[in-house]
Amino acid sequence: MEYEASLDRALEAVPDIGSGGDRLSVPDAVAQPDGAFTRFTNLQAVAEALSRDAEHLHRFVQRALATSGQFVDGVGRYNGEFSAREFEAAIDDYTEEYVRCSECGLPDTRLVQENRNTMLRCDACGAFRPIQKRRKQSTSSQPDAVEAGKTYTVEVTDTGRKGDGVAHRGNYTIFVPGAEEGDVVEIYIENTSGQLAFARLA
Questions:
Q1: pTM above 0.70, yes or no
Q2: Measured between alpha carbons, how far is 49 from 150 in angstroms, rounded to an integer?
């Protein structure tokens, strides 16, 4: 009886971290044309839903789309014409790299600095990993470059927030609707945007 009472007290002291691998409720990206630019009008709201700094997310979106831009009053403004789908893909890529725990899959994480390195600490399972630093993209001589209009065989290693399969080739993140994690599939690249590529099953 004493053991069971101690166990009950211990369980009560454990914080409730919920269940399931996806408890994120992130608003859909809203893209608004603005002359030669595109506005990501609810970037601030997306960053808050991810519990991340909006400027940090903005800089990531710039790199993912290989463009320049500004972040003013909660809105990202990027040089070029981009769709909500492209912003969504950048958010998915950001979530996998900077938010979701690679061990338990939960979003209960925070970024911490240790010895000048940015680390992702999971408050749910205790996992602690460094953030992968992205290599600069070289479109001229990259052996694993992805080109629109070509087919490739890839392994789907992740699932995006919208349920799309996610594969990687070189520095590219490829979104493949209809594919599931663990599939090895032949894909046709419909278009690319910076380090993001959008494909369909071939």
A1: yes
A2: 36
